[in-house]
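Supplementary Note 3. Input sequence used for the single-chain structure prediction.
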Amino acid sequence: MSKLQFKKAFTQQEPIPEQAKKRVMELLDSGRLHRYNTVGSELSDAALLEQAFAHHQGRQYCLACTSGGYALHIALRAMGLTAGEAVLTNAYTLAPVPGAIHAAGGKPVLVEIDDNYHLDLADLALKAKASGARILLLSLMRGHIPNMDSLMALCNGLGLQVLEDCAHTMGGSWQGVKSGNFGQVAAFSLQTYKHLNTGEGGLVVTDDAQIAARMIMHSGSYMLYERHGATPSPEVFENIRLTSANMSGMSGRMDNIRAAIGLAQLPGLDNNCKRWNQRYTILNSVIAAIPGIDIPVRDARESFVGSSLQFRAEAIDMTQMPSFIAACAAQGVELKWFGENQPKAFTSRYDSWHYIDPMPHLPNTLKVLEKTLDLRVPLTFDDEDCYLIGAVIAQVMAQFTGK
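The predicted structure, written as discrete structure tokens, is reproduced below.
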């Protein structure tokens, strides 16, 4: 049998909506790109995005900022993180998550994951008690939403504040409650490969007026906090606006161009989530049917967004994994490996984050990740593409297993 060949790029995004292009040109013609460069009582595009996303999410306050990682950073600071304080987070995540904890002055305490890529609740309870942490930065890594009822019950019992990292779950939910509506604060990413594409960008939401006010001050508001779109009342800022902790703004504001691009995409988010899931369903079906591959079954109560797919190539020995990935790439299918012992591109294993001290040994996380492969699912792919990708992986797997 001749080798199958997939020819589309895994990094190709859909075009930005015409509405956004028109608005961006208007902004360029005006020269008023900064979020506070407004006339009279008008709201900037950044403020309008804050209003629109707060309404979409069903939360009171929203801040538009430069990135999802920055959103996590200032959320931690606004939650009162102090230097050297322990913060719990998943051992399976992307480097910017523990990086945000470290950059904000905290000490990341890594928690095991279970076989379904979720936080291990038993290990969470042990680590929370041992560390004395009061914050859990819950990374909903690659869109895997755990049993939020059980997790929040445990966190509430332990007195943990929860910061949700929803970079991969915008549009997802647990039992009808939107991801990002469980913890005290939730951060979202608008980076190119996320569910709204502004190149870079972040949104952070909360119902806590004090936290919202501190985040706005941290982002660099120049005392122009009343020009935000989903902001607490001016009275909330009175007791915090002149303190040293809140005056150290980091110029992390979102500009109007990126806000306009995000605003134009937000109305189509729910439909795009359905389109991602249509592609994911096909890929999940054909890849799960390949002998030697395991894809954990997802809980029916989880409404996820299938913008990526993770599977474990159980039939492939660790020493064969680079060759397996290279063989798939030679036939046009790009896979990333979360079990590799050295960071590559955006993937890295927790034991490569050397600033974490002491470095824990997390055997189940290592076991789960050692054969975990990651497949991006762009909306530029159609159903036929998804079937072909599955067929390529099946063909390559047969070459390695003889099955």
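The domain at 268-401 is CATH 3.90.1150.10 (Aspartate Aminotransferase, domain 1). Residues 291 and 398 are 8 Å apart (CA to CA).
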